[in-house]
Protein backbone atom coordinates (compact mmCIF):
# COMPACT_ATOMS: atom_id res chain seq x y z
CA UNK A 1 0.00 0.00 0.00
CA UNK A 2 1.39 3.42 -0.96
CA UNK A 3 2.04 5.80 1.91
CA UNK A 4 1.51 9.47 1.10
CA UNK A 5 3.13 12.35 2.92
CA UNK A 6 0.94 14.72 4.87
CA UNK A 7 0.24 18.04 3.15
CA UNK A 8 1.42 21.35 4.59
CA UNK A 9 -1.15 23.12 6.70
CA UNK A 10 -2.18 25.32 9.58
CA UNK A 11 -3.54 24.38 13.00
CA UNK A 12 -6.32 26.72 14.14
CA UNK A 13 -6.51 26.92 17.91
CA UNK A 14 -8.09 29.34 20.33
CA UNK A 15 -7.61 31.10 23.63
CA UNK A 16 -10.92 29.68 24.85
CA UNK A 17 -14.13 27.95 23.83
CA UNK A 18 -16.44 30.05 21.68
CA UNK A 19 -13.86 32.50 20.35
CA UNK A 20 -14.70 31.69 16.73
CA UNK A 21 -12.14 29.09 15.63
CA UNK A 22 -14.54 27.58 13.11
CA UNK A 23 -15.31 31.00 11.64
CA UNK A 24 -11.62 31.65 11.05
CA UNK A 25 -10.92 28.11 9.78
CA UNK A 26 -13.79 28.53 7.31
CA UNK A 27 -12.53 31.95 6.24
CA UNK A 28 -9.07 30.50 5.50
CA UNK A 29 -10.47 27.47 3.68
CA UNK A 30 -12.85 29.53 1.55
CA UNK A 31 -10.09 31.88 0.46
CA UNK A 32 -7.79 29.00 -0.47
CA UNK A 33 -10.61 27.31 -2.39
CA UNK A 34 -11.23 30.55 -4.31
CA UNK A 35 -7.55 30.56 -5.26
CA UNK A 36 -7.79 27.06 -6.72
CA UNK A 37 -6.01 25.30 -3.86
CA UNK A 38 -7.08 21.69 -3.16
CA UNK A 39 -7.66 22.48 0.50
CA UNK A 40 -8.84 19.92 3.04
CA UNK A 41 -10.48 20.48 6.42
CA UNK A 42 -10.14 18.35 9.51
CA UNK A 43 -11.47 18.56 13.07
CA UNK A 44 -10.16 15.63 15.13
CA UNK A 45 -13.07 15.57 17.58
CA UNK A 46 -16.31 17.48 18.01
CA UNK A 47 -18.86 17.63 20.83
CA UNK A 48 -22.18 19.41 21.07
CA UNK A 49 -24.73 18.25 18.49
CA UNK A 50 -27.99 19.75 17.24
CA UNK A 51 -31.10 17.90 16.09
CA UNK A 52 -34.28 18.71 14.20
CA UNK A 53 -37.87 17.56 14.76
CA UNK A 54 -37.26 14.46 12.65
CA UNK A 55 -34.42 13.42 14.94
CA UNK A 56 -31.66 14.14 12.44
CA UNK A 57 -28.42 15.01 14.23
CA UNK A 58 -25.67 17.28 13.00
CA UNK A 59 -22.66 19.20 14.28
CA UNK A 60 -22.55 22.83 13.21
CA UNK A 61 -18.73 22.99 13.05
CA UNK A 62 -18.61 20.01 10.69
CA UNK A 63 -21.29 21.45 8.42
CA UNK A 64 -19.53 24.80 8.18
CA UNK A 65 -16.13 23.25 7.47
CA UNK A 66 -17.66 20.98 4.83
CA UNK A 67 -19.43 23.89 3.12
CA UNK A 68 -16.18 25.87 3.03
CA UNK A 69 -14.58 23.36 0.64
CA UNK A 70 -17.68 22.07 -1.12
CA UNK A 71 -17.14 21.87 -4.86
CA UNK A 72 -13.55 20.70 -4.57
CA UNK A 73 -14.51 17.30 -3.21
CA UNK A 74 -17.37 14.83 -3.73
CA UNK A 75 -19.94 14.27 -1.01
CA UNK A 76 -18.27 10.97 -0.09
CA UNK A 77 -14.96 12.78 0.31
CA UNK A 78 -16.64 15.21 2.72
CA UNK A 79 -18.48 12.73 4.93
CA UNK A 80 -18.64 13.35 8.67
CA UNK A 81 -16.04 10.63 9.18
CA UNK A 82 -13.61 12.39 6.85
CA UNK A 83 -14.09 15.88 8.27
CA UNK A 84 -14.41 14.79 11.90
CA UNK A 85 -14.09 11.07 12.72
CA UNK A 86 -15.05 11.37 16.39
CA UNK A 87 -18.29 13.06 17.33
CA UNK A 88 -20.19 13.29 20.61
CA UNK A 89 -23.59 14.68 21.52
CA UNK A 90 -23.16 16.65 24.75
CA UNK A 91 -21.70 20.20 24.63
CA UNK A 92 -18.85 19.24 26.94
CA UNK A 93 -15.11 18.70 26.65
CA UNK A 94 -14.65 15.58 24.49
CA UNK A 95 -13.66 13.12 27.25
CA UNK A 96 -16.65 14.21 29.34
CA UNK A 97 -19.00 14.06 26.36
CA UNK A 98 -17.66 10.60 25.49
CA UNK A 99 -18.12 9.39 29.06
CA UNK A 100 -21.75 10.54 28.98
CA UNK A 101 -22.28 8.08 26.10
CA UNK A 102 -20.29 5.27 27.76
CA UNK A 103 -17.63 5.75 25.10
CA UNK A 104 -14.00 6.83 25.08
CA UNK A 105 -12.03 9.04 22.73
CA UNK A 106 -9.81 7.01 20.42
CA UNK A 107 -6.47 8.72 20.99
CA UNK A 108 -4.57 7.41 17.91
CA UNK A 109 -7.52 8.32 15.68
CA UNK A 110 -7.22 11.98 16.70
CA UNK A 111 -4.07 12.07 14.58
CA UNK A 112 -4.50 9.29 12.04
CA UNK A 113 -7.97 10.50 11.03
CA UNK A 114 -6.22 13.24 9.06
CA UNK A 115 -4.42 10.64 6.93
CA UNK A 116 -7.47 10.52 4.65
CA UNK A 117 -6.26 13.85 3.25
CA UNK A 118 -2.73 12.64 2.52
CA UNK A 119 -1.88 12.40 -1.15
CA UNK A 120 -4.90 14.33 -2.37
CA UNK A 121 -5.08 17.69 -0.58
CA UNK A 122 -2.50 20.40 -1.24
CA UNK A 123 -3.11 22.12 2.07
CA UNK A 124 -4.88 21.08 5.27
CA UNK A 125 -6.70 23.22 7.82
CA UNK A 126 -6.89 21.49 11.21
CA UNK A 127 -9.23 22.99 13.79
CA UNK A 128 -8.82 22.13 17.44
CA UNK A 129 -11.57 21.93 20.06
CA UNK A 130 -12.01 24.55 22.75
CA UNK A 131 -8.87 26.31 23.95
CA UNK A 132 -5.24 25.32 23.56
CA UNK A 133 -5.18 23.20 26.73
CA UNK A 134 -8.69 21.78 26.43
CA UNK A 135 -8.66 18.02 27.14
CA UNK A 136 -9.37 15.78 24.15
CA UNK A 137 -9.14 12.48 26.01
CA UNK A 138 -8.33 11.30 29.51
CA UNK A 139 -4.62 11.83 28.83
CA UNK A 140 -4.41 14.13 25.77
CA UNK A 141 -5.17 17.80 25.18
CA UNK A 142 -5.23 20.12 22.16
CA UNK A 143 -1.62 21.15 22.73
CA UNK A 144 -0.49 17.52 22.54
CA UNK A 145 -2.24 17.11 19.22
CA UNK A 146 -0.76 20.35 17.87
CA UNK A 147 2.67 18.94 18.71
CA UNK A 148 1.86 15.80 16.74
CA UNK A 149 0.87 17.76 13.64
CA UNK A 150 3.70 20.31 13.93
CA UNK A 151 1.73 22.78 11.84
CA UNK A 152 2.15 26.50 12.55
CA UNK A 153 -0.60 27.83 14.78
CA UNK A 154 -3.26 30.38 14.02
CA UNK A 155 -4.38 31.56 17.45
CA UNK A 156 -7.94 32.91 17.51
CA UNK A 157 -8.62 35.34 20.36
CA UNK A 158 -11.78 37.18 21.35
CA UNK A 159 -12.01 40.94 20.96
CA UNK A 160 -12.50 42.78 24.24
CA UNK A 161 -11.23 42.86 27.80
CA UNK A 162 -9.05 39.94 28.92
CA UNK A 163 -7.82 38.97 25.49
CA UNK A 164 -4.27 40.22 26.07
CA UNK A 165 -3.85 37.89 29.03
CA UNK A 166 -5.52 34.93 27.31
CA UNK A 167 -3.48 35.44 24.15
CA UNK A 168 -0.15 35.74 25.93
CA UNK A 169 -0.86 32.63 28.02
CA UNK A 170 -1.66 30.66 24.86
CA UNK A 171 1.45 31.97 23.10
CA UNK A 172 3.63 31.04 26.09
CA UNK A 173 2.14 27.55 26.31
CA UNK A 174 2.73 26.98 22.60
CA UNK A 175 6.32 28.19 22.69
CA UNK A 176 7.14 25.98 25.66
CA UNK A 177 6.23 23.06 23.41
CA UNK A 178 8.41 24.29 20.57
CA UNK A 179 5.48 25.20 18.34
CA UNK A 180 5.57 28.00 15.80
CA UNK A 181 2.88 30.65 15.75
CA UNK A 182 1.94 31.97 12.33
CA UNK A 183 -0.15 34.71 13.89
CA UNK A 184 -3.07 35.79 16.03
CA UNK A 185 -6.52 36.71 14.72
CA UNK A 186 -8.75 38.84 16.90
CA UNK A 187 -12.35 37.79 16.36
CA UNK A 188 -15.69 39.22 17.47
CA UNK A 189 -17.83 36.10 17.98
CA UNK A 190 -20.62 38.08 19.65
CA UNK A 191 -21.94 41.52 18.81
CA UNK A 192 -21.54 42.51 22.46
CA UNK A 193 -17.76 41.96 22.35
CA UNK A 194 -15.95 45.29 22.38
CA UNK A 195 -14.44 45.82 18.95
CA UNK A 196 -13.11 49.27 19.86
CA UNK A 197 -10.32 47.71 21.93
CA UNK A 198 -8.95 45.75 18.95
CA UNK A 199 -6.27 48.22 17.91
CA UNK A 200 -4.79 48.55 21.41
CA UNK A 201 -5.12 44.82 22.07
CA UNK A 202 -3.34 43.98 18.82
CA UNK A 203 -0.45 46.33 19.62
CA UNK A 204 -0.03 44.87 23.12
CA UNK A 205 -0.17 41.26 21.93
CA UNK A 206 2.37 41.94 19.18
CA UNK A 207 4.85 43.76 21.41
CA UNK A 208 4.54 41.54 24.48
CA UNK A 209 4.08 38.24 22.66
CA UNK A 210 6.49 38.91 19.79
CA UNK A 211 3.96 37.51 17.30
CA UNK A 212 2.12 39.12 14.41
CA UNK A 213 -1.54 39.95 14.89
CA UNK A 214 -2.81 39.15 11.42
CA UNK A 215 -5.96 41.21 11.74
CA UNK A 216 -9.45 41.59 13.14
CA UNK A 217 -12.65 39.85 12.08
CA UNK A 218 -15.84 41.59 13.16
CA UNK A 219 -19.11 39.87 14.05
CA UNK A 220 -20.44 37.73 11.17
CA UNK A 221 -17.86 39.17 8.77
CA UNK A 222 -16.01 37.24 6.07
CA UNK A 223 -13.17 39.79 5.89
CA UNK A 224 -9.99 40.29 7.86
CA UNK A 225 -9.20 43.93 8.53
CA UNK A 226 -6.00 45.59 9.65
CA UNK A 227 -5.81 49.29 10.57
CA UNK A 228 -9.34 49.68 9.30
CA UNK A 229 -8.68 48.21 5.85
CA UNK A 230 -9.63 44.83 4.42
CA UNK A 231 -6.57 42.69 3.74
CA UNK A 232 -5.94 39.38 1.99
CA UNK A 233 -3.56 36.92 3.63
CA UNK A 234 -1.24 34.56 1.76
CA UNK A 235 -1.97 31.64 4.09
CA UNK A 236 0.33 29.18 2.34
CA UNK A 237 3.17 31.68 2.53
CA UNK A 238 2.66 31.97 6.29
CA UNK A 239 3.38 28.26 6.58
CA UNK A 240 6.52 28.57 4.45
CA UNK A 241 7.80 31.50 6.50
CA UNK A 242 7.31 29.56 9.72
CA UNK A 243 9.13 26.51 8.37
CA UNK A 244 12.08 28.71 7.44
CA UNK A 245 12.04 30.51 10.76
Structure description:
The chain is α/β, with parallel strands linked by helices and 245 residues long. Helices cover 34% and strands 20% of the residues. It is built from nine helices and twelve strands. The chain has helices at 21-34, 60-68, 80-83, 94-100, 107-112, 142-149, 163-176, 198-209, 235-244, and strands at 9-14, 39-42, 45-47, 50-51, 57-58, 86-88, 123-127, 153-158, 181-187, 213-217, 224-226, 229-231. It has a six-stranded parallel sheet, with helices on both faces. α1 runs parallel beside α2 (60-68) and α7 runs parallel beside α8 (198-209). The chain starts with 8 loop residues before the first strand and ends with a helix. The relative contact order is 0.18.
Question: Major sheet: size, sense and barrel closure?
Answer: 6 strands, parallel
Query: What structural category characterises the helix and strand content?
Result: alpha/beta
Report the span from N to C terminus: 35 Å
Spatial shape: globular
Adjacency order of strands in the biggest sheet? 2-7-1-8-9-10
Q: Helix and strand string, N-terminal first?
A: EHEEEEHHEHHEHEHEHEEEH
Instruction: Indicate the radius of gyration in whole angstroms.
Output: 17 Å
Share of helical residues: 25-40%
- Proportion in β-strands: 15-25%
Round the mean pLDDT to the nearest integer and report it.
93
Could you write a compact summary of the structure shown?
The chain is of the alpha/beta class and 245 residues long. Helix content is 34%, strand content 20%.
Amino acid sequence: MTSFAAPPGLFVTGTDTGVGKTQIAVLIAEQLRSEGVQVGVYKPVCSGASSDQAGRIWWDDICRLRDAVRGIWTDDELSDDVVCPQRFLAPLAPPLAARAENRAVDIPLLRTGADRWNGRSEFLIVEGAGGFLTPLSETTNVADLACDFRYPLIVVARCGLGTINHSLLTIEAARRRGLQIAGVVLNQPHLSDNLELSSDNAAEIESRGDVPVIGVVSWNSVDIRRHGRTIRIAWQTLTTKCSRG
